[in-house]
User: What shape does this take?
Amino acid sequence: MNPLSSPLLADLYQFTMLQTYLEQDMQQTAVFELFMRKLPPGRNFLVAAGLEQALEFLENLTFSTEELEWLASRFPPHVIHYLEQFRFQGDVHALPEGTIFFPNEPVLRITAPMPQAQLVESRIINLLHFETLIASKAARSVLIAPDKQLVDFGMRRAHGAEAGLLAARASYLAGFSGTATVLAGTLYDIPIFGTMAHAFIQAHDDESQAFEHFARSHPDNTTLLIDTYDTEAGAHKVVALANKLKIDNIIIKGVRLDSGDLAQHARNVRRILDDGGLCDVTIFASGNLDEYKLQTLLTARAPIDGFGIGTALDVSNDAPALDCAYKLQEFAGKPRRKRSEGKATWPGRKQVYRMFSRDGCICGDTVALEDGDPQQGTPLLQPFMHAGKRLRPKPSLHALRQQTLMHYQSLPTTMMTMDCADNYPVAISTTLQALAAQLDREQLKRDQ
Amino acid sequence: MNPLSSPLLADLYQFTMLQTYLEQDMQQTAVFELFMRKLPPGRNFLVAAGLEQALEFLENLTFSTEELEWLASRFPPHVIHYLEQFRFQGDVHALPEGTIFFPNEPVLRITAPMPQAQLVESRIINLLHFETLIASKAARSVLIAPDKQLVDFGMRRAHGAEAGLLAARASYLAGFSGTATVLAGTLYDIPIFGTMAHAFIQAHDDESQAFEHFARSHPDNTTLLIDTYDTEAGAHKVVALANKLKIDNIIIKGVRLDSGDLAQHARNVRRILDDGGLCDVTIFASGNLDEYKLQTLLTARAPIDGFGIGTALDVSNDAPALDCAYKLQEFAGKPRRKRSEGKATWPGRKQVYRMFSRDGCICGDTVALEDGDPQQGTPLLQPFMHAGKRLRPKPSLHALRQQTLMHYQSLPTTMMTMDCADNYPVAISTTLQALAAQLDREQLKRDQ
Assistant: This one.
């Protein structure tokens, strides 16, 4: 059993509800929408990601004998019989990955018989929430440092293996140059990068010897970590070594700094390298970096060519979760509304329309009902799956990344920075507002 | 290929370094220790977790044909040949899961030929870091609410599938009652809990009808979600329904509140239930809870019997990562020390000794060299694996949980609360300090 594709990756209530849906013959069509309730503090927008993994999950959802046996100890035979045949047969509409979006806008809509649409809830949220979280975080670094090499270094402190892999994917989608995680490279065809660890230096009695051993093993791709003992002393050793290795046609490509005042060390190291004739040797920096520290280093004009961003990216340290929900908006042809305090939803099947200003920047969205509620602007939600089958071939991650970079160009400059821009206008159509009010009146009547 | 056990779950530099280690015949024994550099703000201690998953990873580490083929496109044949035969053959010492520990104390030590010990770095950190993060977070809720039912509700917003599963395991280990995640129940034998979603209520035209349908499907285990429209109105419907269902011997076990002022709603609902003769119906609360909100509800004496804690637990929202490191402390028989600014390590193979006061509370630890540096107190690191083989059978998670609850009893009361206690004393033995100073002097001499 591969836990990443198991249908038991669900909350227990999904199965208890499923039992009742079957017993009450509530198999009519349900429409669920996944959306964010609000932006994390300090953020101006979100970047949709994770759709590809969600579609794969839906496409391949079946119950193994082992899983059915486990369920049979807790659920009656008619439930097990239903699950034996289970295939997801619904429709999926979604924002294409890389789309910039805002609270209250559906990222994904599932239209399927109720037991199916409810069963997939938790894993669908789990996938879209996390990749969207990371893509949205990564976009911030990409936008402030568009000309720098940015590499995901975060797998070791990501929350488990899948988080490390999906963080590599989502950050690459959002414009990172690649990842250090080998398996992410193999699974998603992401460029992978690597240097050396302090342990490698420490394992040698002599730092210069360590540098030389590494360079001789990797004559065309050597980045040397120079901060194990003394960063500037390390840089001088690199200069001496480079001259020695020239004879054997071994080129040192770069050095990495991982501690201390990175801006100051980078300036010192740049001078030492340049004075030693190593103007082409790049400087790569890492060490608890995030987009705020990146901004500080950029503002200080630190001569750094690339950055390894690890933990802060992979756990989205300033906002490790988004306030998202997967809510029933229509059932058996009738729009539905949850009215819980502070958590009321907009009912019905919806579309998001986006307006652009004359200079090509996004300038306002309208959330409206999909049917009978036409709006100006470009509709953003697109169909991706019908009756359980994909409607289009799987796009390459590289193509999605290019698309995402294009979307960035439609951001007003105020939204590209780390400062909080004015709230982006997201209107709710008058028809949708009227429908919500009508449902509230009907509910009130029932409660009386 | 199961991505969760793939040896490619590594950083690229682990393979580039491995190549050089092989080419330079640096296969002598390396000793790496995993430790935390500091506590997250506001925390008094950490709880070790994840060892079982780390041991499983090491035990089963082999390269598949597919993985070797991928590597062969990037690494020379002698590296591939080495990896074809690869088995982890090292020793593992660790703090047993559930042990309370502090910064600078090794949580795990790996003693193995250098290429092996370096190769496993990232996944070992990834597993121990995350489960320790979650167990340490969960412990806070358990300690302030020891008599309440605490259930992990967080899978949907956990960072990927493995995070959801391991968060369920780590929080149960730390004293939670169980999880909502079905797969975690099957994989780790954790009790699972579930109620119903708002969608279930919304799918019915009538809330009472929804309650009745659910209760008839689950006559002996019904917890009804009563906040979809109006919490107190929901409670009155439960009273009416309970009387109706009594005839059929159907008992309503509990109600769940998920929004609004939980303390006030709980008091209102308790009164409505009690007035309706439903004194045995429990109240379960959920909705963006964390240990701080839990504390507020407990202080307010809200009549709530159990809590579903989701996102805040599974992402450790106030501290989504720990500052941890896996560092080389000895190689080829010689102690090693990293001196990078702000990141210097304590060299050598170490043991942690713990002292207890007369009342059985922990009162101070000493980090010392394992050999020739005897200290008072109980040694905490224990051997778990020798030459790649486990030294003891896999413990049940339930037994580990019992052990963890025992450890809590040794915490001074000041450390059990949510307030910051005085720093717990962790001494570095004079012999270890002297060794570090000696290595610094030697390094300085080499740099001159």
Q: What stands out?
A: The mean pLDDT of chain A is 96. The domain at 147-314 of chain A is CATH 3.20.20.70 (TIM Barrel). Chain A touches chain B through 107 residues (CB under 8 Å). The CA atoms of residues 254 and 282 of chain A lie 4 Å apart.
